[in-house]
Amino acid sequence: MEAKIIWLFIFVVLYWVYCIYWGWRSAQMAKTASDYFIAGRRLSMWVFILAATATSFSGWTFMGHPGLVYRDGFQYAYASFYTITIPFTGVIFLKRQWMLGKRFGFVTPGEMLGTYFQGDFIRILTVVVALLYSIPYLGVQLGASGYLFNVITVTDGFPDGMFTQNVGMWILSIVVFIYVAAGGLRAVAYVDTLQCVLLALGIIIYGSIALNAVGGWDAMQEGLAKLAASDVGKWGTTKGYGGGDYNAYFAIPGVIQWTAGLGKETPVGGLWTGIMCLTYMFALMGIQSAPAFTMWSFSNTDPRPFAPQQVWASSLGIGFILFFFTAFT
């Protein structure tokens, strides 16, 4: 067995042991519904900051964002400003929900909205919205993780991978189910704390490896200059959209383009017009306003963690990492 596979299994097993441990540990600590669903309103400041950041960005940022920058170029890299728009809804809602939860003892957003509107319909609707958001989101994340598990287990003896995408996905799903179902929000928080560190370090490390592989900063700049002077790329050139005929890897193809629709008519110079980037970032604002996320607001002893998470961890920390290590490397 190759050394990379041995190290992969060692770290994966250690990670799974960590996840299951916190599922078991949190189950022992959960004595009431409040303990299970919102960690007894006693989540520590740094655990919330790291866990909420990991929940906001997670695997789709780790794998999907660099992939789209590679495919579409710097025109997509402008969407990295979602590190500001995602926590913006948290700025609006989280502290207010925390105050209501503290005053009236709410445990879930559905309970809060049901009390405010004096009816169970809104409570049921909140659950439906949370499911419609969470199920596809989890499906995409677990599917991508299964695919990654398949790719990184490719060896000479297993050219198609030691595990298929579906097998990898189901193994990961079982581990997630065990620690989430057993430990509730506290288990999720402590696992996400580690995942936030792994997310940030992972992007920094593979960005640094990529920069070293191309020969350093100067060599990368020379290569980008040569690429910018050509029409090489998935989208060719902007052909006048955006103010000139530039390589589409380096220019946004105008403010907006009117087409027959994706799959029917390809926009000139790429998908990521100014309006596309803007509406994409607006759509991602739903992450911190979704019921599945706003429930985190009830889990804190006080509102102190909200501002550092929204400003320093998300906008500055993850923002810098995305702009530098994924866009430029």
Task: List its traits.
single chain, 329 residues, mainly alpha, 69% helix, 0% strand
Describe this structure in words.
The protein has 12 helices and no strands. It has helices at residues 3-29, 33-38, 45-72, 74-77, 82-104, 109-117, 121-152, 165-213, 217-228, 274-284, 291-294, 306-327. The mean pLDDT is 93. It has one domain (3-29, 36-327). The two termini are 32 Å apart. The chain is mainly α and 329 residues long.
Summed up:
This protein is an all-alpha fold and 329 residues long. The chain is built from 12 helices and no strands.
SSE blueprint:
Elements: H1 3-29, H2 33-38, H3 45-72, H4 74-77, H5 82-104, H6 109-117, H7 121-152, H8 165-213, H9 217-228, H10 274-284, H11 291-294, H12 306-327
Overall spatial form: globular
- How much is the radius of gyration in Å? 22 Å
How do the helices and strands follow one another from N- to C-terminus?
HHHHHHHHHHHH
Enumerate the spans where pLDDT stays under 50 for 5 or more consecutive residues: none
User: Strand percentage, roughly?
Assistant: under 5%
Number of helices: 12
Number of domains: 1
**Averaging pLDDT over every residue, what do you get?**
93
Helical percentage:
55-70%
> What structural class should be given to the helix and strand makeup?
mainly alpha
How many strands, which pairing sense, and closed or not: the largest β-sheet?
none
Terminal CA distance reads 32 Å
Give the beta-strand count: 0
